[in-house]
TrEMBL record:
The lineage of its organism: Eukaryota, Metazoa, Chordata, Craniata, Vertebrata. This is Kinesin-like protein. One of its GO terms (biological process) is mitotic spindle assembly. Keywords: ATP-binding, Coiled coil, Cytoplasm, Cytoskeleton, Microtubule, Motor protein, Nucleotide-binding, Phosphoprotein. InterPro entries: KIF11-like, Kinesin_motor_CS, Kinesin_motor_dom, Kinesin_motor_dom_sf, P-loop_NTPase. GO terms for molecular function: ATP binding; microtubule binding; plus-end-directed microtubule motor activity. One of its GO terms (cellular component) is nucleus. Residues 1-24, 668-692, 838-857, 869-911 are annotated as: Disordered.
Amino acid sequence: MALALSSPYGCPSDEEEEMAVFESTAAEHRGLARPRLPEMSVISPVLDTWTTITQPTLAVKSGLVRKGSNGEGNNEKVKVYLRIRPLCEVEREREEEQGCVAVQDEETLLLKAPKESQNMRTAERGITQSMHKFSFTKIFGPKSTQQQLYESTMKEMVKDVLQGENRLLYTYGVTNSGKTYTIQGSGREAGLLPRALASLFRKLQGRLYDAVDLKPVMYQDVRQLQPSEVRAEEIRRNSLLKEDENLSSRRGGTTTVWDSGLSSMSDVVTQLEDTDSVCLEPDSLSHSGGHDLEEGVQFSIWVSFYEIYNEFLYDLLDASPSLQPRKRVTLRLSDDKQGNPYVKDLTWIQVRSAEEAWKIVRAGHRNQSFASTHFNQNSSRSHSVFSVRILHVRPEAGSDQTIHTSELTVCDLAGSERCKDQRNGERMKEANNINTSLLTLGRCIAALRHNQSNRSRPPQVVPFRDSKLTRVLQGFFCGRGTSSMVVNINPCASIYDETLQALKFSAIATQLVHGPSSKTRVAYILSLLREQKTENENGSMVVEEEEEDESDVEDGDITMLNTEALLQAIDVLKREVQRQREEKEVLEASVREQVVSEMMEVISRMQEGFSETLEAERALIEERYEEKIANLQKHLKKFYSQELKERDQEIEALSAALEKKEAESITLSAPQAECEGPRRSQRLSTQTKHGRVNTELDQCRAELLTKTQELKKLKMELEVSGSTGNFTGAAERKLEEGQRNLRQLCLDLQRLRLDLQSGERACCRITGGEKLRQAIVAAHDTLLKQDQILMELRNSLMLVKADLRRKEETLAKTEAMQAQLPPSGFAASTISSSCKKRGCGAAAGNDTENRPPVKRPFFQSLFPIHTPTRKYNTRAAEESNMTPSLQILRSRQPSPPPSPVSTPRILRGKY
Ligand SMILES: Nc1ncnc2c1ncn2[C@@H]1O[C@H](COP(=O)(O)OP(=O)(O)OP(=O)(O)O)[C@@H](O)[C@H]1O
């Protein structure tokens, strides 16, 4: 076969071509054993078993049934075209041309992995093939023109749409592969869309329905507009057209990035070749066989333009184009009563010429999301969907008319790309969303293909709902119309792996057959009915009828079955459902059993593993801690032995120094030595004395404590008791005893102090006697505290004494009054008690002896050292005014001890 379209980018060698032929043949002879991995994968649309499928009926409005016109589309495969874009200068300089893309013939493409590609690396490891062969409806090489492409793809579609069909054309490919160029064109190279618009309006010359009172809504409905709504529609339309004119005049005809250099429609019209103008004559339209337009029908053309950006739908014909993308209103997808999806609140604009339509495209294009990426300076970051909806109107039929609609949708998909190539976060997010929606499209197509090639099996769920893109295109895959795909590839070696993926996806699409998914279900039902028939030995009338109608039902039209057959079908289906349910229950039970046993195994393995790990961990930890303990022991031993050694050395040094000193003192002065002997013994005796003193001090302290307690008790008794006779005696006795004790204590203290002083004198001479000195200071502090306590005790005693004195006076007075008054016990006691109560006893005498005890002596007693003279004077004065009994008491009181403060002063002065 002549390779009219063979690529200039490296033709495969003879050897390779031979290999390709061989592999292709091997692929066709399925079932042959393949001893080795094929060096080439062959993906071609081979669907021999699916030849009986018919073209679906056209989706209709108001029950108007229109079968596929001219039988076209019946058992037809989905058309997939391939377009290879030429390399640009920069790419040539980068040596991107490595012969990896080769066109074998009009339908076959051969891909050969370049050295640096991932595919080649995996092929070298024997995982995949390095050569791939693909078949397409038609391949357009780098030199093909826009017109050639239009002729083969869009031209026929435009005719079909005018006949009432729905058609979809979408471009698919890696980013920067020429999708937008194919759809819209560039400069004077108008793309498929402007050509289609120009062709459409030329065909409809004189057949346009200019009124705006009918508008397409929802999935495929038409609504009659009120006059006010008509006005609103006109305003919207005019504003969009005016806006485009204003922008064009402001730019002075120059192109900018956002309009991609689109040419004006007049250029496009001149580019349309004569072949297309054959259809322009109304006569030729009506007499051109299957391509004639219906008599008396006028056509109202409406267009819409929206994009799917990051899984959000945006109206590109929104009246406020100046709004920022993030502020744009998102459109919602809804379902009509039959469950058909449609874009809610989408703007539809009526257009009356190709120029107007093109202006609307340009206005929408300005709102579209483009960005500069790693690969493409002006990359589409969204899937854009441009729809032309045609209302087939019969104006003579008035309000009774049934309006038919047909639609031509052109979808420019965003390019698939590797996310890692994107350095910008926003671009990466876009790439993610683009890839996800394209992947979903691929999954939908794969599921559709599976359902078509496995008719007798239950159909797979087609995941249309998984992305917005597949949801809006769902109708075209499920019987609403037919779709065609243009796969764009870029022959650059650096993006070979991405190109291969895109081609693999498109290869699946080439195996698709137009047809609604419901057809598969019908075929499935019919197969069940056939099975039922063979099972049914008697063979009912219904089955016979069904056999008669088999030719019809093979077409998938279940409505051709009669009621009985349908009822039987329902029964069969019910039984099938039951059977499948039971089958699934059994399957579920066995799966559960398997899962449980596997889980048990896994758990036991995990348990074993855990216990082993635990044991190992324990052993390890034990070992580690044993090591640590041993280390610690070693270090402690070392440390303490070191310490001991140091101390021994110190002791040795000290004893040596002592001995040396002793020896020195002995040799230097003999008389001195004589004196030293007793001194040393004195020192030793002082130390023993010091210990003794301490114990004595403790004893004294304890004794003092008990005495204090006794005194307190006594005082309380004195306060509580009303009678003074026996109590005074007892108190005197106690006081005497206390004073004796005190005296003894004072003496003891005196002695102790002297001992201490002598001890201090002895100790302070000893070299290194710091410790002893500190002990003495502490003992001295203790003594001071004892003194303090003694002082307090003395003060307390003074107070007790004063109280006793007062009581004695009162007693004496009472006695005196009793002696003076007549012997009336009642009066005497009354006076006595009243005097006592008022304190008359204290006020009666004006001598000092009778004065009540005041706080002054107490304070004075607190500071004996500062006011000794005054104290003793006061004491003398007191003694002079004392009662005999008090004088006796006072005489027993010991002389004031030496000032407790003076001793520490002296001691401290020493150190
Ligand atoms: N057949 C062709 N002939 C000449 N130039 C082409 C052809 N196809 C594409 N180009 C050029 O290649 C570049 C990329 O094309 P285009 O923007 O259409 O790619 P794309 O696939 O739409 O990219 P993206 O997915 O990133 O939007 C453009 O400069 C375009 O003019």
